[in-house]
Design goal:
Layout: H1 5-12, E1 25-27, E2 29-35, E3 38-40, E4 50-52, H2 53-57, E5 63-65, H3 68-81, E6 90-98, E7 109-117, E8 123-127, E9 131-133, H4 141-146, E10 149-165, E11 181-184, E12 189-195, E13 201-208, H5 209-217, H6 223-231, H7 235-240, E14 245-246, E15 251-260, E16 264-265, E17 268-270, H8 285-305, H9 310-340, H10 356-360, H11 370-377, H12 388-400, H13 409-413, E18 420-423, E19 430-433, H14 447-450
Parallel strand pairs: 2-11, 9-17
Antiparallel strand pairs: 1-5, 2-3, 2-4, 6-7, 7-8, 10-13, 10-14, 10-15, 11-12, 12-13, 16-17, 18-19
GO molecular function, one term: monooxygenase activity
InterPro entries: FAD/NAD-bd_sf, Flavin-dep_Halogenase_NPB, Flavin_halogenase
Keywords: FAD, Flavoprotein, Monooxygenase, Oxidoreductase
Length: 451
């Protein structure tokens, strides 16, 4: 599932995401149910917990439920069409660095990478001036050279899911039809019900690894039977499965959150899961990856154009990625605390049955309330998954965050880091000091404006 910010990023990069409606389901909204008597979500939340993308930005403000492999393929082909030299079925094995007397950060200056072609085992070396590591969870720079990846002590979850046909639909016959639906299990995790392009639904359960192991140990049920029993802990979601049928075997995956102490050094950037990963409850992964990619391109162009030196450009990117990660980590951990503490008002004031005010804390105009929200969410009386040191790190990162509205391109262009704003003009991509930023250069033209 893609957050609606992806449409703005796609327009900014002139990628061919206009084809995605033919490969995916348009999402008019998202529904989240954290408690048995409360619904909530983010962006625009009404009294029924409905996240209405359309109301927030008009009839073309929908998002997509993309098939990830097809979406990645479109981006890859678009890069080649735009002039990038692309290689398929190639694995990068190592990076070569040269000492640089002018650089005192990182392992040196990266100059080349060795690779192996998976088809025939042929090897080779490719040289470069800059490297952007977008190698996914395996990582390369952060795991092999910087060695600064750290797994968080927060949720360590396992997901179990299958694909279903002939199920019901959320909001069938209403403007909310085909909205993805997420529901908290009774004190043990959450479940999803997501429509796909071929008429099937992805239906899954996410639980803490330890809790899932305990349930397995005391149960004599088969794997499929356990999965079906867990879905019953989300009664509203389970109701949509009446008359439905599983059409594929169960799949499992672990979702352990991690981050890194830095995401860049001179002539190198790290983007997406190669640097950090958060539990996918809010579908923030693609958003963070695309944001990281745009930041990498912006800061590299800034260094090439002389907007700032290499060290400053790398620091800007690293800070930008940290801010985005901290923002979503707070939301995700707070949501989990609410789901595992049904009687405690973690995400709402006492007596409220929705989270409108809680999520308003993340708007720029309500930023002063953010720390109160965070302290409330991580109150030791409710129970803590993080150490005091980790909590304080999150608080400090949030204090430094200048842009809390993560839903569109505006949030990227207005994020002041080290006195610099991104200049998102095609042909002039880079960084500019706040004093030198013209109002006309703060926004990336959309495809419509450009053509």
């Amino acid at each position: 599932m893609a957050l609606r910010s992806l449409r703005a990023y796609a327009a900014c990069g002139e990628s061919n995401y206009e084809l995605l409606p033919f490969l995916s389901v348009k999402l008019p909204s998202i529904i989240c149910r954290y408690l048995s008597n409360a619904l909530s979500s983010w962006w625009v939340v009404d009294q029924q917990g409905h996240t209405d993308f359309i109301a927030a930005g008009g009839p073309n403000h929908f998002s997509w439920n993309v098939i990830r492999s097809e979406a990645d393929e479109l981006l890859f082909r678009h890069a080649a069409h735009s002039g990038a030299k692309t290689f398929e079925a190639v694995k990068v094995n190592s990076v070569t660095f040269t000492p640089s007397p002018t650089l005192d950060t990182g392992p040196g200056r990266p100059v080349s990478a060795s690779y192996t072609q998976k088809s025939d085992g042929a090897t080779g070396v490719v040289g470069f001036k800059y490297i952007i590591d977008a190698s996914g969870r395996a990582g390369l720079l952060n795991t092999k050279y910087l060695k600064n990846r750290k797994y968080n002590q927060g949720p360590k979850n396992v997901a179990v899911w299958a694909y279903w046909k002939a199920t019901g639909k959320y909001g069938e016959g209403t403007p909310r039809e085909n909205s993805p639906y997420f529901e908290a299990l009774t004190g043990s995790g959450w479940a999803w019900f997501i429509p796909l392009h071929d008429g099937t639904h992805s239906v899954g359960v996410v639980m803490d690894q330890g809790m899932m192991s305990q349930k397995k140990a005391v149960s004599e049920l088969s794997t499929n039977a356990r999965y079906l029993s867990w879905l019953k802990l989300a009664p509203r979601l389970n109701g949509y499965l009446t008359g439905g049928k599983m059409v594929a075997d169960l799949k499992t995956a672990s979702d352990f959150s991690y981050d890194s102490s830095s995401y860049a050094f001179p002539y190198a950037r790290v983007a997406g899961d190669a640097g950090c990963f958060i539990d996918p409850f809010f579908s923030s992964g693609v958003h963070l990856a695309i944001t990281g990619g745009l930041s990498a391109a912006t800061t590299i162009c800034a260094a090439i154009r002389g907007d700032c030196d290499e060290v400053a450009a790398a620091r800007w990117h690293s800070t930008k990625v940290k801010e985005g990660y901290s923002h979503w980590l707070v939301i995700v951990l707070s949501a989990y605390k609410q789901m595992s503490n049904q009687a405690e008002p973690v995400l709402s004031d006492v007596g409220e049955d929705n989270f409108v005010r809680a999520f308003n804390f993340f708007k720029p105009t309500e930023f002063s309330h953010t720390l109160n929200f965070v302290h409330k969410a991580f109150d030791r009386k409710i129970g803590g998954d993080l150490t005091s040191e980790e909590e304080e790190k999150i608080y400090e990162d949030i204090r430094k965050t200048q842009s809390q509205n993560m839903s569109n391109i505006e949030s990227f262009t207005m994020d002041i880091i080290d006195g610099r704003l991104p200049r998102l003009l095609r042909g002039k991509l880079g960084l500019e000091s706040v004093a030198g930023m013209d109002e006309d250069t703060k926004h990336c033209p959309t495809a419509t404006q450009q053509h």
